Amino acid sequence: MNPIIPMPRHYDRFKRLFNEEAATKDEFDRAKADYLAVKNRLSAFDARIKAVDEEIKALNNELRYLVIKSPVSGWVTKRTVDPGSFVGPGAHLFDIDSKEEGFWFVASLNESLLNKVREGDEVFLSIEQAAGLKVLRISRVIPKVDVHTHTFKVKLDLPGNNLKSGMYGKIWIRTGEKKGLIVPLEAVVKRGGIKGVYVVDKDGQIHWRVVTVGELYLRGSKGLFPWSEELEPSGNQFEQVALISSGIVPGAKIIVSNLFEVREGMSLE
Length: 269
Fold this sequence. Notes:
The protein has helices at residues 7-19, 25-63; strands at 74-79, 94-98, 103-110, 122-127, 130-142, 151-158, 169-173, 181-184, 189-191, 194-200, 206-210, 212-220, 223-226, 239-246, 253-254. The protein is of the alpha+beta class. The chain has 4 domains: 7-63, no CATH class; 73-101, no CATH class; 103-173, Efflux pump adaptor protein, beta barrel domain (Elongation Factor Tu (Ef-tu), domain 3, Beta Barrel), CATH 2.40.30; 181-261, Beta Barrel (conserved putative lor/sdh protein from methanococcus maripaludis s2 fold). The chain has a 5-stranded antiparallel beta sheet, with no helix packed on it. Helix 1 runs antiparallel to helix 2 (25-63).
């Protein structure tokens, strides 16, 4: 039973009994002392509750300083402290990729290309985690050669914000011109392991001609660049073409579609 609640009634009863001379002064004094002791305890409790309330308010005011806010909008790419660690003002906590600032691609090129690339030159870029190829321009050439790797760096501004820091990619730079005869790769047909194309003569007759296929390229609106199996083109932005070193001459008419319906000796109407 909680003795705090009935104490006022207990004191009032003894006070009435004492006034009616039904209780001795010692009994009244004991009841009064017990009452005052309980009253003091209640006052102490109230004071402690008020003190705790003040502490809670102070802590709530300090909580707003414990929320870490980034000055930029973006993605956390690296955390340099562990949860529960003590940090001080100016401590490095996170690395953040800013959405507003965008991204750039940094490539290392052999020093032999230093005099062959310029800011504004178009290059082909492929990033493994981002499907497709892009045609971009070099935004900056850093003409400082690393004495250990014999390379220098170039930077490309990247469009869009669906990228992340640390993604790996490759660039292809046009360093010169090469003359040759190219045909769409889909026009090359294999017969018995031999490669050839269907050509149309001046009379409209179709003939199969054996050809020697050389290097493969991807052709886009900005030109050609070497094709490899690791870089499959996406969409219709690029067309696969093949360099033909022998078998047909420039100006020859070839069949490039519906090849499964084409036969030697057929005529085009």
